[in-house]
Prior knowledge:
This protein has 172 residues and is an alpha+beta fold. It has three helices and seven strands.
Amino acid sequence: MEQRIGSSSQPLKGEPVTxxxxxxxxxxxxxxxxxxxEAEDAEATxxxxxxxxxxxxxxPAESVPQAEVADAGExxxxxxxxxxxxxxxxxxxxxxxxxxxxxxxxxECEFTWPEIAAVETETARFGKRFTVTVHTPDRRWYPIEIxxxxxxxxxxxxxxxxxxxxAYFESE
Length: 172
């Protein structure tokens, strides 16, 4: 079997490129390519704006960006409950009454307490890395490492995480 390597194996410019190899969000049969979805969203927003201008009214509620809607609907944090928070220059972990939130650079994920099967903490034998791993019921795990200012911080973080888990995590 021959494999072509180099510029001769590139797709033609006029032909659309689809598939998981070119678009990780592409799932055959379930979703179209990201370019198609973006084009449809842009058309729907443009149509909503045109109809709002024709009516002479402000933009409809559907055209309000999702971030603004999410900020308006957030509940205030519960006073007095235990909260674990640790961050370094790249990563951030927050565990409170809503669940566990992990962030690394621009990527973020949030797990509510019913979505969590276990939370594991680990300290490095050498160095200053504190690892928190969130395990889900479908046997997936999501680890994140935080670099501590000093190794003495580990005991404080461990105690704080234990207090949050004792307060909010219900093992059945």
